[in-house]
């Protein structure tokens, strides 16, 4: 594969930073964007927290009740998604002009393939500086940029440079710079995979350099096809492409109950609404399957799914398939339900 130069951009604490910009009186205070905390008894989770709030241990997906206990003096704000999406659109108008291939992975994050545009990492660094300056000039928002030889290394560079930074990791630096990093730095290595690697190595708190000692054949034996991918990524190699504009592969919605419940009438009424909302978003698409999510009062979360031939299915068909899966959660556990979700999968 020819030499690549990939840039990763990540807006700094995006939702909370927008709120700081719109409300200067909040500057310097811990800000939490997410569900209503209701005096520490709120439902739902944190969407974004600024760095002042993060210093108290609050981060994305922290239960909002815990966030309130950690920092009751924080400014808690609701998610204003329509406005955030508008700002995101403005940001990515700037970003999209900088490369032919731009892979937007969320409202505040994207990869750019600069391989055809830049002959050197020095030129790529200038592009990164231009992006940061133009976004700040237009939107008064900061972002962080990472540049590397592939998507994984560009993202790692970005993480190392946060917040409001720019870091370049050249190919000659790749292997050395990640060797002391924790295993979960590698995409796809979560808690269970990390535990399996450490168990094989007989070493707690193993680093990337330790996992490199495992032969490729053994990694494949332990993790199947993923083992081959891990072998290369542990050495800084990631051949995944910047895909350009990506089509959504699924559409879904979730609902967190104000109070944990076992009331089937209430649960099914909410589920029916979720199915309707998802159907209206996806009805122009062919659907190849569905997933039902259930989170119990103790935060234990389970999913059940059904797949079928891709087609333009009616709402009633999706509801009947989905509710039969949902009812299994009610009949197989006596625990109260905290959250339910419904998602349909689309052909790639």
Q: What percentage of amino acids are in beta strands?
A: 15-25%
Total number of domains = 4
Mean pLDDT: 93
CATH architecture heading of the largest domain: 2-Layer Sandwich
CATH class identity of the largest domain: Alpha Beta
- Number of helices, where a helix is a run of at least 4 consecutive DSSP H or I residues: 13
Largest sheet: 5 strands, mixed
Using the CA coordinates, give the radius of gyration. Answer: 22 Å
Straight-line N-to-C gap: 25 Å
Low-pLDDT segments, ≥5 res: none
Instruction: Report the CATH topology name of the largest domain.
Output: Alpha-Beta Plaits
> What's the number of extended β-strand segments?
12
| Proportion of helical residues | 40-55%
The secondary-structure class comes to alpha+beta
| Shape annotation | globular
The secondary-structure element order is: EHEEHHEHEEHEHEHHHHHEHEEHE
CATH homologous superfamily identity of the largest domain: Reverse transcriptase/Diguanylate cyclase domain
As laid out across the biggest beta sheet, the strand order is 5-6-1-7-8
Outline of the structure:
The chain starts with 5 loop residues before the first strand and ends with a strand. Helices cover 41% and strands 23% of the residues.
């Amino acid at each position: 594969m020819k030499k690549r130069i990939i840039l990763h951009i990540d807006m700094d604490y995006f939702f909370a930073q927008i709120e700081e910009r719109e409300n200067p009186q909040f500057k310097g205070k811990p800000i939490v964007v997410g569900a209503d905390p209701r005096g520490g008894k709120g439902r739902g989770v944190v969407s974004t927290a600024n760095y002042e709030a993060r210093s108290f241990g609050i981060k994305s997906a922290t239960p909002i009740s815990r966030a309130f206990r950690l920092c009751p003096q924080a400014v808690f704000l609701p998610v204003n998604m329509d406005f955030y999406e508008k700002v995101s659109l403005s940001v990515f108008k700037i970003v999209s002009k900088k490369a032919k291939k731009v892979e937007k992975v969320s409202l505040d994050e994207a990869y750019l393939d600069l391989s055809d545009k830049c002959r050197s990492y020095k030129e790529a660094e200038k592009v990164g500086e231009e992006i940061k300056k133009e976004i700040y000039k237009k939107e008064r928002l900061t972002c962080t940029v990472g540049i590397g030889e592939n998507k994984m290394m560009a993202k790692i560079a970005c993480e190392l440079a946060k917040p409001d930074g720019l870091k370049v990791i050249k190919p000659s630096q790749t292997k050395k710079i990640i060797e002391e990093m924790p295993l979960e730095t590698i995409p796809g290595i979560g808690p269970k995979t990390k535990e399996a690697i450490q168990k094989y190595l007989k070493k707690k708190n193993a680093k990337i350099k330790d996992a490199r000692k495992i032969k490729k054949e053994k990694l494949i034996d332990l993790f199947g096809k993923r083992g081959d991918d891990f072998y290369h990524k542990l050495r800084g190699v990631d051949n995944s492409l910047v895909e350009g504009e990506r089509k959504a592969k699924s559409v879904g919605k979730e609902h967190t109950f104000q109070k944990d419940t076992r009331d089937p009438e209430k649960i099914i009424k909410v589920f029916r609404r979720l199915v309707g909302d998802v159907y209206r978003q996806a009805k122009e698409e062919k659907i190849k399957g569905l997933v039902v999510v259930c989170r119990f009062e103790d935060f234990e979360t389970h999913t059940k799914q059904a797949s079928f031939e891709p087609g333009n299915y009616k709402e009633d068909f999706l509801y009947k398939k989905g509710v039969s899966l949902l009812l299994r959660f009610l009949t197989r556990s006596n625990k109260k339900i905290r959250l339910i979700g419904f998602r349909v999968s689309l052909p790639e």
